[in-house]
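Recall that a protein's primary structure is simply its ordered list of amino acids. Everything else, from secondary elements to tertiary packing, is in principle encoded there. The following example makes that idea concrete.
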Amino acid sequence: MISRFFFPERLPAGGEVVLPEALAHHAARVLRLQDGDAVILFDGSGGEVPARLAVSGRRWSAWLDAPCAVERESPLELVLVQALASGDKMDWVVQKSTELGVAAVLPVAAARSVLRLAGERADKRVAHWRQVAVSACEQCGRNRIPEVAPVASLDAYLTASRGVRKLILAPVAGKALRDIAPPARDEAVHLLVGPEGGWSEDEVAACLRAGAEALSLGPRVLRTETAGLAALAAMQALWGDY
């Protein structure tokens, strides 16, 4: 497979671009690429550009071929509203939901979230998750980077998402996915996934008052890092590009 790299600036129509230090280091030290190797660059604005590496000492650049307008985005506008989870679970969720085609990941602080983030610590973690999304796009072939929003409270999210179709995973009271109407054309669907301990009763009630539909994923209780991904995959199979 040809290695793919996200280029952090808008790519020109042709010619040579100098690779940023981090990108060059990854190409040289991790992937062991060499002068003349074929790569693909994309800048997140859509499409991708075949290129060939040019190495001169410590200077790494790429000569660009004609851009390709190929897109691999889902026809569904799926937004994952993920309650903060501990350890490396959030990394996993961001990575895999990117592979599954989400348009955005919105991290929210829930009452039962083990992970607590605020201030500079929250900013650093969000920056890290954004890089996880970039790496996932490089791997899976997407040419547009999904948004990873700053951490917000559930109340702030509900206020900002008025009028948006919302599905909340609620194992006891929810409908099956097959019983829920598919989204209308160009309608965004926000999927709300609770933390390790699940949503509190008050949180579920607040979401339902805000117009959310309760969704069940069957008789088995799934972990927070599994539930959202299972639902996203099922939506892609029912309504998307699977």
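Residues 3 and 31 are 8 Å apart (CA to CA). The domain at 77-239 is CATH 3.40.1280.10 (Alpha/beta knot).
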